[in-house]
């Protein structure tokens, strides 16, 4: 497994010394479900062309943060947010933001692979067709191939494109879901424990893919697998009871945590 732990420092205007720019700015975000506060004054930046890992014990607010980024959390009755989230410098809550358009800028990869029970080809073609990404049907085969190649799945499925997506192995299904997410040209891919249902081999292939995809996307991944966070991410955010306790270069979070809470968590001592 290659070492991905390059260190980077943020310079104050939000750019990083290797030229990475801020994709999402989370600013003083509080979130509630009814009376229950799930996030408390969370502020940090998510960079383009990097993988940001969200880690922390169960119930610390990771999924709430992830679903707040694409405003899917708002579909939960009683959910409420204060603070701001900027995408490319513009508030996602601005009145002129069209919700459907905003959500389409995010790809979503769930814990359980969930391909449509439709042909593999259609899993990828559907979103591109309904969102007008590919307008001429003659271009669709080429586009489907391109998405499947980006998801490192093409060679395995090129002769079975008419078989249902659900006929693939779990790891292949998850890569198909990634190809499907790519088909609408998102800026950001959000992943909530994308490998927790996969065996180590399939997990390794998804991790390799994540590393390749960050060449032109921002990726935010929740994982309970600390080795995975260390392998795939450049930046790590550690949450505890709704608060962002530490955020920084992944290597620093794992090797030089500044707080006892984070240290206990990354060394597996958390109670
Ligand atoms: N739909 C909901 N209704 C009410 N409370 C919720 C809802 N979803 C989450 N919560 C609460 O908000 C807090 C944060 O939950 P969240 O799901 O964001 O945590 P998490 O870090 O993703 O946990 P896990 O690692 O178990 O997935 C928890 O206390 C949880 O009980
Ligand atoms: Mg969760």
UniProtKB/TrEMBL annotation:
Belongs to the ABC transporter superfamily. Pfam families: ABC_tran. It comes from Hartmannibacter diazotrophicus. Keywords: ATP-binding, Hydrolase, Nucleotide-binding, Phosphate transport, Transport. Signal peptide: none annotated. GO terms for biological process: phosphate ion transmembrane transport. InterPro entries: AAA+_ATPase, ABC_transporter-like_ATP-bd, ABC_transporter-like_CS, P-loop_NTPase, PstB-like. Residues 24-266 form the ABC transporter domain. Its EC number is 3.6.3.27. This is Phosphate import ATP-binding protein PstB. GO terms for molecular function: ATP binding; ATP hydrolysis activity; phosphate transmembrane transporter activity. GO terms for cellular component: membrane. The gene is pstB_1. Gene3D superfamilies: P-loop containing nucleotide triphosphate hydrolases.
């Amino acid at each position: 497994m290659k070492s991905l732990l390059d260190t980077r420092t943020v310079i104050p205007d939000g750019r990083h010394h290797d030229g990475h720019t801020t994709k999402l700015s989370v600013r003083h975000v509080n979130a509630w479900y009814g009376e229950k506060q799930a996030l408390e004054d969370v502020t940090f930046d998510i960079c383009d062309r990097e993988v940001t890992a969200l880690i922390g014990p169960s119930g610390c607010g990771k999924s709430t943060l992830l679903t707040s980024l694409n405003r899917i959390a708002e579909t939960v009755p009683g959910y409420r947010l204060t603070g701001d989230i900027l995408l490319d410098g513009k508030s996602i809550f601005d009145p002129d933001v069209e919700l459907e358009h905003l959500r389409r800028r995010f790809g979503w990869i769930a814990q359980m692979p969930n391909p449509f029970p439709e042909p593999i080809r259609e899993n990828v073609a559907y979103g591109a067709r309904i969102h007008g990404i590919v307008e001429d049907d003659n271009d669709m085969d080429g586009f489907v191939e391109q998405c499947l190649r980006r998801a490192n799945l093409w060679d395995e499925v090129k002769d079975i494109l008419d078989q249902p997506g659900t006929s693939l192995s779990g790891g292949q299904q998850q890569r198909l879901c990634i190809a499907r997410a790519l088909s609408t040209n998102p800026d950001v891919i959000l992943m909530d424990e994308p490998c927790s249902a996969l065996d180590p081999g399939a997990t390794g292939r998804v991790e390799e893919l994540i590393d390749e995809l960050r060449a032109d996307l921002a990726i935010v991944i929740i994982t309970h697998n600390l080795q995975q966070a260390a392998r795939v991410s450049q930046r790590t955010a550690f949450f505890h009871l709704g608060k962002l306790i530490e955020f920084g270069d992944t290597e620093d979070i794992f090797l030089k945590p500044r707080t006892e809470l984070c240290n206990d968590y990354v060394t597996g001592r958390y109670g």
